[in-house]
Structures are given as C-alpha cells and as structure tokens.
Amino acid sequence: MMGRLIVVAACMAVVLLVAAPPMAEAITCGQVESNLAPCINYLKNGGAPPPACCNGVRNTVNSARTTPDRQAVCNCLKVAASRVPGVKSQFAEALPPTCRVFIPYKISMSTNCASIRF
Fold first, then answer.
1. CA angle at 26 for the pair 75 and 56, rounded to the nearest 5°
2. Which residues does the UniProt record annotate as the domain Bifunctional inhibitor/plant lipid transfer protein/seed storage helical (predicted)?
C-alpha cells in the first residue's frame, strides 16, 4: 500500500511539473548593462554603433517581454546612463532606430518608466 502511494505521489508531481507554466526570470540590470556595454563608445561619441552594440540592443528588447520587464529595463538604462560620464542623450535616443530596433517610448532621462505599458 505504501509503495502504491509513493508511485501515485510521484506521478502527481510529474504531472504538476509538466502542467505548470514555466517560470519567467525577470531581466536584471546586470544583463542590461552587459548587453549594452559595447554601445558606450557610440553613446559618448556617436558615429556607427558596432554590431555587438546593436545585437545587445536587440537582446535587451527581446528579453523584456512583459510590462514590468520593460519598465525595469527603462529604469536600468537611466541608472546606467547616470553612472557613465559623457553619455550624450541625442546618441542614446538615436540608438534604437540606428540599430533598426523598435522601442515604443523615448530613450531619455526624462522618460517616466512607470508609464511604459504594453
């Protein structure tokens, strides 16, 4: 009887694991900063962003699938920009379209990240 209960419990655990939705991990500021580190020279001096920069922009956008993730990325960008001397706002604003990545809000220190919804 005890062996049968263990088998039933194990089967139920497997069913729950298979049926449960996957746990999505939130994007971290460390990931955002790592993705966008190749962009620092562009953000200071303009010109053409390197391919690694545009790949980082794409990775960041693709990783932020939920509204809270997108708001977190926005806040991370603002904090990171405040810590890197010499970042010019015009280059930050131009980065997504230059990399052919659509972001439906303005990249700016004045952006209210809490207002990002989608």
1. 65
2. 29-113
Structural domains in the chain, sorted by start: 24-111 (1.10.110.10)
How far is 65 from 51, CA to CA, in rounded Å?
A: 23
Query: Cβ of 91: how many Cβ atoms within 10 Å?
Result: 19
Confidence of residue 12 (pLDDT cuts 50, 70, 90): very low
Residue 9 has pLDDT above 70, yes or no: no
**At which residue do the structure tokens 């926005």 appear?**
74
**Integer CA distances (angstroms), 80 to 2, 4, 29, 37, 39, in order:** 57, 56, 8, 10, 12
Mean model confidence pLDDT for the chain: 81
